[in-house]
Design goal:
- This protein has one domain (25-357): B-lactam Antibiotic, Isopenicillin N Synthase, Chain (Jelly Rolls, Sandwich), CATH 2.60.120.330.
- The chain has ten helices and 14 strands.
- It has helices spanning 13-18, 56-60, 64-80, 93-107, 111-114, 167-192, 199-203, 276-281, 336-346, 352-356, and strands spanning 52-54, 83-87, 126-128, 143-150, 211-219, 231-234, 240-244, 252-256, 259-262, 270-274, 291-293, 301-309, 315-316, 334-335.
- An eight-stranded mixed beta sheet has the order 1-2-10-7-12-5-4-3. It has a four-stranded antiparallel beta sheet with strand order 6-11-8-9, with no helix packed on it. The protein has a two-stranded antiparallel ribbon with strand order 13-14.
- Helix 3 (64-80) packs across helix 6 (167-192) and helix 4 (93-107) packs across helix 6.
- The protein is globular and about 55 Å long.
- Keywords: Dioxygenase, Iron, Jasmonic acid signaling pathway, Metal-binding, Oxidoreductase, Plant defense, Vitamin C.
- GO terms for molecular function: dioxygenase activity; jasmonic acid hydrolase; L-ascorbic acid binding; metal ion binding.
- Residues 209-310 form the Fe2OG dioxygenase domain.
- Its cofactor is Fe(2+); L-ascorbate.
């Protein structure tokens, strides 16, 4: 099943925010149980933050003990949190700043220029304002731009914005560096699972066939941030996400038990999280974790999420080395193409999708 058109006219959330409204349309008001202010089970503990991991020791190779400690910290973060920040990751800080600022400039352009890139639910590529195609669905308070970067055969620069003038060049440079970082993280995860260093990369299809997509999120300021979300709670359907957060405004929240933890991004850090496909490949040793985005009454936010995914037509299943009599395969094989159709049709739905894959033989 694929859908060629949105079920109703698309409204740009940025335009709503700039219209000066004092209350948000009912289409964006979340049920009470999903609102950021719900305190039954979803309280936020501001004294916690996701792990921060310095990757410097992995590139220097001088201190073996420190290198092993770093590997263990990555393993623990993947098992216990599904999220962590990395510093000294090898990506130019100037490139990170340029990418974020140029995308902010894109969203500041007149609407008629942005509408030239309006997307459809068939591929989602381009300028969009909703996920899922259910008519009458409650929507999130955000706009976005989505593009394919890997494999190179799907990279279509004609669908990338021409303005600001240097944006296409920076997309290419930024994509190249983030893909390299993703490859290094897959190697670390493979080693920590007791697999060959290239296991996850090969299971993703190999360096030239992995899937890589960039979703640039724009979260406009909101007159009633307590009633809505910039992005509803979900786990990421792909392999791994490498997020460049806004450098001034926090908004990402990660579920830890019954708490929503607001992530405080460090300067020049990336936030990395495990996606559903690595949860499946690791036979649930590593877990994808629900997260959501809250919005701000005074400030807009921009973030860049790079989705590092398996080749779309490969069967994804638990690694044979991680399946034992005591721990049988927890998931049925499925291609990533089949898997991601769920979120494209239904929108973000917590962890309902990956949990629905659980094998009946436990």
């Amino acid at each position: 099943m694929s859908c060629q058109a949105w079920p109703e006219p698309v409204v740009r959330v940025q335009a709503l925010a700039e219209s000066g409204l004092s209350s948000i349309p009912s289409r964006y008001v979340k049920p009470r149980s999903q609102r950021p202010t719900n305190t039954n089970t979803n309280t936020t503990d501001v004294n916690m933050n996701i792990p921060v991991i310095d990757l410097q020791s992995l590139s220097s190779g001088e201190d073996i003990a420190l290198r092993e400690e770093t590997l263990q910290r990555v393993a623990e973060a993947c098992r216990e949190w599904g999220f962590f920040q990395v510093v000294n990751h090898g990506v130019s800080h100037e490139l990170m700043r340029n990418a974020r600022e140029l995308w902010r400039e894109f969203f500041d352009q007149p609407y008629e220029l942005k509408e030239e890139y309006a997307n459809s639910p068939n591929t989602y590529e381009g300028y969009g304002s909703r996920l899922g195609v259910s008519k009458g669905a409650i929507l999130d308070w955000s706009d976005y731009f989505f593009l394919h970067y890997m494999p190179p055969s799907l990279r279509n620069q004609d669908k990338w914005p021409t303005l600001p003038l240097s944006l296409r060049k920076v997309i290419s440079e930024y994509g190249e560096e983030v893909v390299k970082l993703g490859g290094r993280m897959l190697e670390l995860m493979s080693r920590n699972l007791g697999l060959k260093e290239d296991y996850l990369m090969n299971a993703f299809g190999g360096e030239n066939e992995i899937g890589g997509c960039l979703r640039v999120n724009f979260y406009p300021k909101c007159p009633q941030p307590d009633l809505t979300l910039g992005l509803s709670a979900h786990s990421d359907p792909g392999g791994m996400t490498i997020l460049l957060p806004d450098d001034f405004v926090s908004g990402l929240q990660v579920r830890k038990g019954n708490h929503w933890i607001t992530v405080n991004p460090l300067p020049n850090a990336f936030i990395i999280n495990v996606g559903d496909q690595i949860q499946v490949m690791s036979n649930a040793i590593y877990k994808s974790v629900e997260h959501r985005v809250i919005v701000n009454s005074n400030k807009d936010r921009v973030s860049l999420a790079f989705f590092y995914n398996p080749k779309s037509d490969l069967l994804i299943e638990p690694a044979k080395e991680l399946v034992t009599k005591e721990r049988p395969a927890l998931y049925q094989p499925m291609t990533y193409d089949e898997y991601r159709l769920y979120i494209r049709v239904n929108g973000p739905c917590g962890k309902a999708q990956v949990e629905s894959l659980t094998s009946p033989i436990r």
